Amino acid sequence: MPVRIDAMDRKILSELQRDAAQSLDDIARAVGSSKTPVWNRIRKLREADVIGPTTVALNAEALGFEATFFVLIRTSEHEADWQNRFLAALQARPEVQEAHRLAGDIDYILKVRVQNARAYDAFYQALISEVRVFNVTALLSMEEIKSTRALPL
């Protein structure tokens, strides 16, 4: 059952999206409330799975992950066994930051973050050794113009 989100919840969620590490006092001040009601709302939103796990956004380039590839995959395999093996292979690879099943000519698109083209090739070789694909096209991102996980609340 979906949880009801009101204007105060949206303000709190916006603050958490902006900086989840800020103090409860800072969030309460920003949304015009006091600490206890804000904490209760955050607890309610966590229990309803509106708020997921809290993580830290790392600077990929500072850590040596300088290449982002968008990988377009077409397959002629659509059986449950193939899909299970494919999904398991993607889950096992930390390089895969996102994976989407698509409608249209392309079956899947992956966002793969690696150190360089050689690391991408190692990823590609490992993937195709585990699951059969019909066609793979890799597109190297030359520049990240915008990236956000924030929802437009």
From TrEMBL:
Q: Spell out where the chain crosses the membrane.
A: none
Q: Which PROSITE patterns match?
A: HTH_ASNC_2
One cellular component term (GO) for this entry is: cytosol
The UniProt record lists the keyword Membrane: no
Molecular functions per Gene Ontology? sequence-specific DNA binding
- Give the matching InterPro entries: AsnC-type_HTH_dom (IPR000485), Dimeric_a/b-barrel (IPR011008), Tscrpt_reg_AsnC-like (IPR019888), Tscrpt_reg_AsnC/Lrp_C (IPR019887), WH-like_DNA-bd_sf (IPR036388), WH_DNA-bd_sf (IPR036390)
- State the SMART domains in the record: HTH_ASNC
Q: Which GO terms describe its biological process?
A: response to amino acid
Please state every residue range assigned to the domain named HTH asnC-type. Answer: 5-66
Q: Please name one Pfam family that this protein belongs to.
A: AsnC_trans_reg
Name-wise, this protein is: Leucine-responsive regulatory protein
Which gene is this protein's source? lrp_4
